[in-house]
Amino acid sequence: MAEQQLTALADDRALLGRTSTAERVSDILRSRIADGYFPPGTRLSEDGIGGALGVSRNTLREAFRLLTHERLLVHELNRGVFVRVLTVEDVEDIYRTRSLVECAVVRGLGEPPYRLEGVAAAVAEGERATAGNDWKALGTANIHFHRELVALAGSERTDELMRSVFAELRLAFHVVDDPRRLHEPYLARNRRILEALQAGDKREAERLLETYLTDSLERMVEVYRRRVGDDPARAS
Fold it and tell me: Residue 205: which of 135, 163, 148, 166 has the closest Cα?
């Protein structure tokens, strides 16, 4: 594990406060995975992470267990805990879940106007990343865009469900050999969805979103079959 990863993780130590729990540790690690700090196949050091966050070994192991249950980590006997490498079937299931949840959220919106500040901020974040040719940051901005779409439902349960799904999605992004080709076309589509919602046209927004997710799935599966095939170990 790279020293810079542990240094960045140490910055999260303040988030634990005085009531450090495995759930809070897992929240931090999940967020770090979702933001791309720990790529698939990374071995997570108990000593390194425990020291960076200032938590006990037992607390960290419980956090690892929680994230293993969420399919973000995998425990390998006599080797340790690793960030999971996804299969093609995993990617297909992630997108199936996204389509069911995200489209339902947009479809279920009430009467406009909608509270779109977070969605608009994610689009702006993506535009800044593109201007700086930072394609990893654009991938993160795209995830933030969809996270903010889900947040429009105002449901803590839905937010919690999709946090894990989006963290898994980040693991899929790591396999992509050309992140610009994957992410850049969707920035304009994010803005079109935002504009439809700003106009109060949730039907059009849902139509755009459904097509978006279908196209994105096809692209991701194409990349996965080329890079990973039936052997996830090839991605690491």
Answer: 148
The answer for residues whose C-beta is within 8 angstroms of residue 110's C-beta and 6 or more apart is none
Query: Other C-beta atoms within 10 Å of 79: how many?
Result: 9
Distance from C-alpha of 47 to C-alpha of 212, rounded to nearest angstrom: 42
Cβ 74 vs Cβ 43: under 8 Å:
no
Give pLDDT tens digits for 6-28: 777 777 766 665 445 788 899 99
Which residues, in sequence order, are CB contacts of 203 under 8 Å at separation 6+? none
| Cα distance from N-terminal residue to C-terminal residue, the chain | 14
Both tokens of 41, joined, read: 């196949």
Residue whose structure tokens are 């903010």: 148
Q: What is the pTM of this model?
A: 0.80
